[in-house]
Amino acid sequence: MLISPGDTVLLDAPSYPGTLAALRPLGCNIISVPSDRHGIIPKDLKEILSRWSPEGTRKPNSSLPKFLYTVPNGSNPTGTSLPEDRKKEIYQLARQYDFLIIEDDPYYFLQFSKPWAPTFLSMDVDGRVVRADSFSKVLSSGLRIGFLSGPKPLIDRVILHIQVSTLHTSTFTQLMIFQLLQQWGQKGFFDHVDRVIEFYKTQRDVMLTSADKWLKGLADWHAPAAGMFLWIKIKGISDTQHLIMEKALEKQVLLVPGRAFNIDNSQPSSYVRASFSLSSPSQIDQVSAD
Questions:
Q1: CA 28, CA 31: separation in Å to the nearest integer?
Q2: Mean pLDDT in the chain?
Q3: pLDDT at residue 101, as a whole number
Q4: Are the C-beta atoms of residues 237 and 243 closer than 8 Å to each other?
Q5: First and final CA of the chain: distance in angstroms?
Q6: Does the N-terminal peptide bond of residue 14 adopt cis geometry, omega within 30 degrees of 0?
Q7: Residue 288: what pLDDT?
Q8: DSSP state, 248?
Q9: Of 41, 103, 126, 272, which alpha carbon lies 20 to 30 A from 35's?
Q10: Rounded distance, CA 197 to CA 35, Å?
Q11: Residue 135 has what DSSP assignment?
């Protein structure tokens, strides 16, 4: 809907595999934007964009990137969250080079500290941000319900696209959420969100404690400020694929090797993604010890 074969798109790296799987068949040119413990690095994004001239946006066949896709809070897999100052820099670059920002924010309601960072959408002054939110992370993963916000012409096109693809999202699950939110009201919903945050924050702290206990000196990591993932760099191992897909599975430990999140997933990675969403504290500690 937004891109054609040969178009250029920007993704924060490493990236969510579902997004990569959706983009690859479209024949677009995917460029990864480096990130650190605070998400996308604006100066690196600016360097990438310097390949083009901002004046090129006026040309009908411009090769400038069509959009930047980012998960700004609790990113999957890295757990990073973009602070406000970086978002402002990135948004200004989007204005300068005239590309859209796809703000995919399923972990927005799983930020562990308040006040929550302002969204790209709240900064948008010229209709270039399309924002996706999700109820799956705070109500039930099986509901698979989310909602889009953004400029009306784009949202109208999304609606038409859905009508000829999935027809529509399940009416039954939509009705369930509608009735629940109507019963709760805004206060009830955010009271529930606070309880969910407390659960995930406790889970995160358990995993961090176990990692510090068993992995210190063997691996590096940063405490995530949102979400449900810990991104771990294993020292002395250039690629974790064999370690995770064979040795870890033999011990019934389910982690994801880092190369699954590379644009080119044949490239080695020394990282693994661990999730603290479901495991009990004792299971987390046992896995870290193994």
A1: 10
A2: 93
A3: 98
A4: yes
A5: 46
A6: yes
A7: 67
A8: I
A9: 126
A10: 25
A11: S
